[in-house]
Design goal:
By secondary structure, the chain is α/β, with parallel strands linked by helices. The chain has 9 helices and 17 strands. About 0% of the residues have low confidence.
Amino acid sequence: MSAKPQSTTITLPRGKLDLTYQTNNRNDNTYQLEDLLGFAQRINPKRAFLFVSKVLGRHIPVSPSIMRGAFTDLANLVSDNLPEPILVIGMAETAVGLSAGVHQALQTRYPNALLLNSTRHAQHNQNNDAAIFTTFSEDHSHASQHLIYQSSDKDLQAQLLASKTLIMVDDEASTGNTCVNVVTALRDAGLKQLQQVHLTTLVDWSLNQSTTDADDNISTRLPDVEFYRHHLLSGAWQWTDAPSPEPIVMPSVDTIEAGSQALGNTGNWGRIPTLDSTGGFVDYLQNFQQAFASFSEQAISEKGRLPKRILVLGSNEFVWLPFLLAEWLEQNTATNNVVKFSALTRSPIALGGTISTMLSFHDNYGLGMTNFVYNVEPDDWDLIVLCVETASDSVDDLWQDLDNVLVVGAER
């Protein structure tokens, strides 16, 4: 059941975004537009605007409990009695934590559901057995090419190929093209038994998108499968360029290389097909606790107290274990403490709108690529826990020079 449609107009420097939307009342929690989204300008000639999630922990710091609630509420919209095997697939980089959260919630009903995320990081540095299963393009993205890996475990790979239900998880759908591209690539690669596709997004803007092709909608472009949508809010958008928009130059961030910094051992949280996304968390938590003990001892000697305002930052696609760490901190620190989560990203966004601050720096993967973090003012936090899947010394000097930053790297 959906509420009465509403409309609003968002004005950005390069144009105007007209939105028509409605909330979804199928959950106990009804999310309003202002609960879920802010808006900003992309530094991207392909698309000038960006929907900025307020519950994802990517461009805006968010309490882990709010994130977990959104993950679970979204998963609860997915139907019972789905044909199995079930494959949950998340879109890099923005939705890899969301997909793991949805997958974990779904496993209360579907314990054998498989998780697999797309990636833009070639995996041969981490696992010589990793082989690419398929690739696809996200046409409007700042980094369009995605890789999907197969499993070297024969049983898991057989389960992947036998999938009857595909649950595609993304933060938002704006046209539906990515969903079609993903499903087509997977079917061409061997998922010949698919019966159902479930597009599962925090916000779905692909409804009623007008096109010049009458058949250009998701369900008619995916023949021989049943198509379903699940979302916390839905609607449609229309963009109008400003009369003379300023030209923009997008940084070079479209790479699927491995980088010169080796990926450490953080378990398997979905870049390779997995049943359990939390397998690497115990070791990563132990790494943090050891580093935090030293930091806390110094904080007490210098300031007389433990840090009360803590920000945990994931890095690019490495967000699921850092989120679990932030959630652990939120549950195991004093009630008057503040713990929030956000992440470094390769996504270039202009200042303005929902984006109030931006820091830029060299990536920790050794790709020679600029990374960013948004809406983070380091002085606002007693402690910033920067979590990376490379060695601790791989992070930019910007982070190493801050005395309130604790870098937790991965073991090689």
